[in-house]
Amino acid sequence: MNRRASANCRYQPTCYEHAANFYTHAGMALLHRLSDTRWERFTAWVYGMGLCGLFLVSTVFHIITWKKSHMRSMEHCFHMCDRVVIYFFIAASYTPWLNLRELSPLAAHMRWFVWLMAAAGTIYVFSYHEKYKLVELAFYLTMGFFPASAVTSMSNTDGVHELAWGGLIYCLGVLFFKSDGVIPFAHAIWHVFVALAAAVHYYAIWKYLYTAPGVDSLLNS
Ligand SMILES: [Zn+2]
User: Fold this and answer.
1) How far is the CA of 173 from the centre of ligand 1 (A)?
2) Is 187 assigned to a binding site?
3) 32 belongs to an annotated ligand binding site
4) Which of 91, 102, 214, 221 is most buried (most C-beta within 10 Å)?
């Protein structure tokens, strides 16, 4: 059951991922167009790169493991990249909230701290890839939840519910991510959860940070 599931599930996500790759590019372009300031444009770009990076690296990794499993070293390399890109994706997902919302002086430090955490995660992956899986999971959860402490200090809390819902969907997805070989197609289901959660977060960023009325009129008045 274990081998069959993993052999079958690798095909499915890649089709969806091709679509996801396209939509993330389109989504990035839309936020870029909605930007009124350089800072907003820069933030849209960072967030868009995080989204595109995640789906692109994941697609390439799954295609390589499925089609070219004889290329062991290359597969190993892309597996590490697949893990590294998650850290940067989490940092990128928080960036619009940290960059475009007013934060307390202490919480504002989270803007650069998330990237420091992503860099630390990268060093960890390249040093101890797949050695301590529980430590790795703890790292991901810390990276996923710790920046939320800054978000809760925002004076304007519009969109925080969507942010929390997205986070919850990611957490439910992790249950499947950790159920490889227990639940058939677990990894493919994990991908669906990731796509769903990312869509919820994108919607919140689009709605509350890029199209919410009054932000610019307040700044200009
Ligand atoms: Zn995957």
Assistant:
1) 11
2) yes
3) no
4) 91
